[in-house]
Amino acid sequence: MFVILVYDIKEKRVAKVLKKCREYLYWVQNSVFEGEITPVKLNILKEELNDIIMSDEDSVIIYSFRTTKYSSIDILGVRKGGEDNIL
Q1: Can you give the CATH number for the domain in which 14 is found?
Q2: Is 58 a member of any domain?
C-alpha cells in the first residue's frame, strides 16, 4: 500500500519522530513522508510512533491508498526530500 504521513509534533520530540519515519518512508517535505509500505510494517511504525508522541500534544495523520494508479504529483518551487533520503 502507498501512504502519506504528516505530523505536527512538539519540538522536543520532533527529531525522534523524524528519525523513526525515515526508517520506513521517504522524506518529502518538512513533516511529510510518503512511500510504499506493507500493512505489517505500517502497524509497527504506528506502534513505534505511539511510544514517542504525547497523544494530548502531538498529531500524526496517515493517508493510505491501495494504489497510485490514478495519481499524479505537481511540484511548484523547490523539490525537497525523495527516495534517496531513506535510511
Answers
A1: 3.30.70.240
A2: yes
Alpha-helical regions (H) of 1-87: 11-22, 39-52
The radius of gyration computed from the CA coordinates of the chain, to the nearest angstrom, equals 13
Q: Helices in 23-65 by DSSP H: which ranges?
A: 39-52
Report the predicted TM-score, pTM, of the whole model to 2 decimal places.
0.84
Identify which has the larger pLDDT, 72 or 43: 43
pLDDT in tens, 44-62: 999 999 999 999 999 999 9
Which pLDDT score is estimated for 83? 59
Q: How far is CA 24 from CA 30, 36, 45, 57, in A?
A: 16, 9, 7, 23
Three cell numbers, residue 87:
535510511
In the chain, what is the greatest distance between 2 CA atoms, to the nearest angstrom? Answer: 38
